[in-house]
Amino acid sequence: MLKIWHVAKRELRETAKTKFFLFSFFFTPLLIFGIMALTRFTTEKAVNGPRPPKTIAVVDLSGELQADLERAFAEHNALHPDRPIHVEAMNELDVDSADAAVERVKADVRADRCDGALVVGQTVTGGSGESVFYLKTRSMGDVEFVNVVKSLHQDAVVNFRFRAHHLSADLVETLSRTAPVTPVDVTAENEQRGAQMGRIFVPFFFVFLMFMGIFGTSQGMLTSVIEEKNSRVVEVLLSAMDPFQLMAGKILGLAALGFAVMCAWGSLAFVAAAYNQMGDLLTASGVGYFLVYFVLGFLLFSSLFAAVGAMCNSVKEAQTMMMPLMIVVIVPLMLWPYIANFPNGKVAVLLSFLPMTSPMIMILRIASVPELSRFQILASIAVLVASIPVLMWFAAKIFRTGILMYGKPPSFGEIWRWMRIG
Amino acid sequence: MHALVLENISKTFAQTRAVTGLSATVPKGIIQGFLGPNGAGKTTSLRMVMNILRPDSGRVLVFGQPLTSHIRSQIGYMPEERGLYPKMTVQNFLMYVGSIKGMTHRAAGAAIGEWLEKMGLGHCLKKRVEELSRGMQQKVQLISTVINHPALVILDEPFQGLDPLNLDLVQNLIREMRDDGATLILSTHMMDLAERLCDTFIVVNRGQIALNGTIDTLRSTFKMDSIVLEADGDLGFLASVAGVATVSGAGRGVEICLEEGGDPQAVLKAALERVRVKRFEIRVPSLHEIFVRRVGGEDA
To answer: Is the pTM value of this prediction over 0.90?
Structure first.
């Protein structure tokens, strides 16, 4: 036991000194918050900030909407002088030449002579058919451009229809004025206006943190094992202890380091959540479960990473071997919107009891449904606790044999033989 | 009680039989040479002694017992491939090795200072391993092997990368440890050095013991079949002396190989009757020659 402790101490101390660890520790939170802030800033700019003027051609096949369209766009331009959309109408349209006109404006769009072409459907004012907007989509800004055109087209059509029924424009405006609804979240101590997106993303944040914690630290295990194998120091170590003691010490040391990192990042997240009045999302039990699942998940994956590291001679080789493992691991990240929507669905429950997916899926479910069945939580922890020694036992067998093997990586047949007799 | 007993140990890797029914004993308090050509099964055997590899069959006894954690702490093993953490300081590395060998922090600290001074590395305490020359790293490796004064020391190629001065230093250290009561097993390809240093020898070839014993025992298995003779006068008559197989060389100095049972004294007597003998030497085969003849002969 004492030897395991010494190995753990060295592993923790030496890993904490590496540039990769220091970089990850300090820059990962900065990177996450930086990306979030940058995304928010650029999205804000793209949606509400100034944008170069756009020009669209309008072909009114209905022959009725031209004036309303021009008025709708003029009103928009008056309200948003820094993001105007100018309209170029094709007057005196000959019905026989409609197809030719459409082709001509499409060619104009293709040749960048205008930014878009709105072809108003022949029967759209009557309530049937559709209009078409031609454009070249180049960036996220074009999504907003299309939305504005669709909205103004809608205004023009509705205006036309009301007028056709002899209703005054002022009355139309008054009757159709938007009645706003503001979502207010009452889970926080102070009622929060417009915090929905933040709250929706909190479960994902937990899963992401778990992923980074488990795999960032397990990556350390992989490189450490390969380094010891390549520098041949492993033979010196194995002359003084069993392979299992070495593996256990490494896992323990890195688990302690990962735990400390999680606590540090978690504290930062707590401060950020409290600052944004979302402190209620980080409950004591939630944080406790997070740490339990982190430790169990780390023990599970670091054993596998240690075995993979022992089989390989380089990180590159290891990455190839890790591929099937990583696919299993990425599943919870891919499924998070679905699981967050249906946290008690069959898929969520099934994945909660598979050791490889359980830590991330469970933390996603706990963050999505605070009142999640305690039985399910304890059962999933029990499954993990039971499967870890089994997996470690097999990993230790692979580790024992693989760590002294050099040359080409073993085949699956050889790995199976090591597990049976190693 | 022997320091080490190997009882019929065997090890096979996939299709390759690395060691086949190898049995040997190493008495306490000696320097045991463990020799053999590349791929003979030396390193595999030593790894089995340390339980780094498990024998497929047979057993290993160290000081009369199977290898336990307690017995393991009495063995110092220096593998053929150097194993150090390049980024660690010499002090931290040796502290770590000392701790996993069961030394207290204080005992390890004292031993490190003592060993580094002895090996001329007192100034390297705080240096990173990667900053040291190859020879210095070799000495750090050796210190890590013997830091806890083990009773059985296994050294696999300990002289690699050492200059003549350090070669002497390490040889003296090995003798000193033997004189202090430790048992040493030395695996090396440097035959002249092994001949000077080791008390007994085990030569392994193709996973089996080819020779075993002291240098005199090994020599006795190879006939003293070579005589160097220098004299004033024509030595052409030697070819016709009874028991002489071949005479090589010409003029006043020749090398004579005897037939099975040939008597060197008869050759000397015949020479003294005909010429004035200036030099008569019965050549003793060196360990190198014995090794080459035995191993080369088997491989031929």
So the answer is: no
